[in-house]
Write a structure and sequence with these properties.
By secondary structure, the chain is mainly alpha-helical. The chain is elongated and about 90 Å long.
Amino acid sequence: MQIIIDVMSRKTSIQNISKEKGIAPTLISLWKKQAEDAILERFKSRTRGRRPKTVEAADKAPELRRMRNEARKARIKAAHLESSLKDTKARLASAREQMAALAETMGCKLVKNVRRRAGKA
C-alpha cells in the first residue's frame, strides 16, 4: 500500500521503487492501475437506494440456475463414466492376461479377432 501511495503522490518514480524493493516495474504499474480503478469506482456517481433489477436479468436468473445445475450434473456423470471406463479397461486387461495364460497352458496360440468393415471384401 505504501508503494502505491508513494508512486501516486509522486514522491518517487516506479523505476526507483522497483530497484529499491526488488519488485518488477510492471507489477507496480499494475498495482497503481488497480488502485486508480478502485478509487474511480468508489467515487463514481450513483443514485441512492437499490438499483432496480432489469426484467431481463430477473427472467434469466432461473434459467441460469437451471443451466448451472445441468452443467454440474453433467460433470458428475462424466466423472462417473470416466471411472467406470477405467474399471472396465482394467478388467479387460486382466481377462486378456488370463486368456493368454490359459492358451499357453493348453499349448494354443491366440489370434487377434480382426473385424472387417462392411462393404469391403
